[in-house]
Write a structure and sequence with these properties.
Oligomer: single chain
Number of domains: 1
Radius of gyration: 14 Å
Shape: elongated
Number of helices: 3
Structural class: alpha+beta
Helix content: 40-55%
Order of helices and strands: EHEEHHE
Strand order of the largest sheet: 1-2-3-4
Strand content: 15-25%
Largest sheet: 4 strands, mixed
């Protein structure tokens, strides 16, 4: 399990409402499955859309795009297939 929260963004949202901490997309799971390395996370857009606030929807889009870039980069770096990255 990897924690990937941006402390500045997290604090900004938590200052607006502490309950939003339950929806922040901070965890990525990296695991082996059938001899393959897999990366899995809940889509930030899905999590933050639960709050039904436009600002959080935009934040979810930004976070998801950055995480996808990071996962794609890691896949290339470690010669993993990007098909092994799973956004739920």
């Amino acid at each position: 399990m990897l924690e990937v929260c941006n402390p500045h963004s997290a604090k900004t949202e938590l200052d607006r409402g502490p309950r939003i901490g339950l929806l922040l997309p901070c965890t990525i799971a990296v695991y082996s499955d059938g001899g393959m390395t897999r990366v899995s996370l809940l889509r930030p857009t899905h999590l933050l859309n639960l709050a039904r606030e436009t600002q959080l929807t935009q934040l979810g889009n930004e976070i998801e795009a950055k995480l996808k870039i990071a996962i794609d980069h890691a896949a290339r770096l470690f010669s993993l297939s990007s098909q092994n990255a799973q956004f739920a």
